[in-house]
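Why do we bother with holo predictions? Because pocket geometry can differ from the apo form. Keep that in mind while you read this record for D-glutamic acid.
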Amino acid sequence: MFDSGVGGLTVLRALERHLPRDAFLYVGDTARVPWGTKGPDTVQRYSVRVARHLVDSGCRAIVIACNTASAFALEAVRAAVSVPVIDVITPVAVEVARALAAPPASARHVAVLGTRGTVASHAYPRALAAIDNTLITHQRPCPLFVPLVEEGWVDGAVPEAIARTYLDPLLRENSPDALILGCTHYPMMSAVIARVARAILGRDVPLFESGDATANALAELLGAPSPDTRPVAPSARLQVTDSPELFLDIASRFLGRPVDTVEHIDLAG
Ligand code: DGL
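The structure, written out:
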C-alpha cells in the first residue's frame, strides 16, 4: 500500500484490524509529499514508481491508500503492474450511497473534503452518481490539512481555525447528510472536523473515511486466509522516502502501538 506520506496509516490501521493475518508493506513518499497540489501526470508518475517497488518487493495486491492517487492514477497503476489494485474512493462511495439509501424523491446532499487534485478530478461526484444519481455532491479542497497532519499538529486552536474556515461555507450553504473525509490524511483530524461541523450545523453529521470500506474490499479480493502460521499481531513494514524519524513518531502515536523501525528507501528516478 502507498500514500504520499502518513495519511495512508488511517487505511493501514483498518487493514490491520480487518486482516490481522496478512502482511503489509507501507510506503509513504515523504520526499515528495504533498501530492494533492500536483497535476495528474506527476501523481501518475509517482504512483507507478511506488507501485513497481511494491511488486518488486513481493506484494500480491496493491491498495492505493491515497485519494489523490486513486483519482488520478488508478488506471496507470493497473496498467503498470500485474497484481490486483484497489483504490480508496470506490469503497467509500459505495458505503455512503448505501448509508443514504432512501426513496428517490428526497434529495440527499453529500459534502466531500479533499485535496485540490481530488476535488478537481471530480472522482467523488462521479463515483457517487454512478451508484445513485439522486445524490447531490458538494466539494471543498482543504490543502492546509495535509501539512498539519504531516507535522502531527491535529488538534488545538490553529487546526480548528483552519477547519472552520474551510467548512463554514460548505456546510452552511449545503447542510449535508454525510461528510466524506476524501483524503486519507484527514481522518487524523476527525475530532476537530467533527467538532467544527457540529458547531456550524448545530447537529452531528456522519463522517465517512476510506479505512474500513477499503479493508472490506481488500478482504473480499483476497478471499479467506489460509490456516497457516502468518502473524496475528500487526507487523506492517514501513518505508518512507524521507525523514523516517518524524514518520516513526507519528506512526506509533497514530497506530496506537509501538513502531520500532521505519526504513528509508530511495525511489528517485
Ligand atoms: N493522503 C493523500 C490523499 O488521500 C494525499 C495528500 C497529499 O499528499 O496532498 O489524497
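The beta strands are 2-3, 25-28, 62-63, 85-86, 108-114, 135-141, 178-181, 207-208, 237-240, 263-264.
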